[in-house]
Design a protein that fits this description.
Order of helices and strands: EEHEEEHE
Number of domains: 1
CATH superfamily: Ferrous iron transport protein A (FeoA)
CATH topology: SH3 type barrels
Radius of gyration: 12 Å
CATH class: Mainly Beta
Helix content: 10-25%
Strand order of the largest sheet: 1-6-2-3-4-5
Strand content: 35-45%
Oligomer: single chain
Number of helices: 2
Length: 96
């Protein structure tokens, strides 16, 4: 499992991907997943320091669709709960 790095101190609002709203963007600060899942996420541009956007939520807690580095991916609710993100200080939209 991956932890939160020292870079996390420059962020103003922490949350899990599962807590994000559709259209929100943030930086990944940690991925808490089994090694295989974490490696797969990294291949799909979801890794510590990456900018991600929550595109939409599935109904009834069915997971989320993320966009990272131009790639869209579906992510189950359990995995989304393990991805910690944060908006950067002074960046209300938190997107570039």
């Amino acid at each position: 499992r991956y932890g939160i790095s020292g870079r996390a101190a420059s962020y103003s609002q922490y949350m899990k991907v599962s807590e994000m709203k559709a259209g929100e963007s943030a930086r990944v600060i940690a991925v808490a997943a089994e090694k295989k899942a974490a490696e797969r996420l990294k291949m799909l541009n979801v890794y510590e320091g990456a900018r991600i956007t929550l595109v939409r939520r599935a109904p009834f807690g069915g997971g989320v669709m993320l966009e990272a580095g131009g790639v869209r991916l579906a992510c189950g609710e359990k995995l989304a709960e393990g991805i910690s993100v944060a908006k950067e200080c002074g960046d209300e939209r938190a997107d570039i």
